[in-house]
Write a structure and sequence with these properties.
Elements: E1 5-7, H1 9-16, H2 19-26, H3 30-39, H4 44-57, H5 60-63, E2 64-66
Antiparallel strand pairs: 1-2
Helix pairs in contact: 1-2, 2-3
Length: 79
């Protein structure tokens, strides 16, 4: 599931040959992709796009990192 995943950005850069390769695949300016790396943040809607493209291109095993389930997030009801 796309929403339950995150991105290994360094792996994405390696898979697509650097900033320019990833930017070209996403059809974005190089400065946009480089800016994400500098800020250490990718907008959520772009993450979903990167994950979808990585899956289509066969890079999902290195680029997509499943989020770990938080065991504390369960709601407990006391009787």
């Amino acid at each position: 599931m796309i929403a339950a995943s995150t991105i290994n950005f360094d792996a994405a850069l390696a898979a697509y040959g650097g900033y320019s390769g990833l930017a070209r695949r996403l059809k974005l300016p190089l400065s946009t992709v480089h800016g994400w790396h500098q800020r250490g943040s990718i907008p959520m809607w772009r993450r979903k796009e990167i994950i979808a493209i990585a899956r289509r291109d066969g890079h999902a095993d290195t680029v997509v990192v499943p989020k770990k389930k938080n065991k504390r997030s369960k709601v407990r009801v006391r009787a």
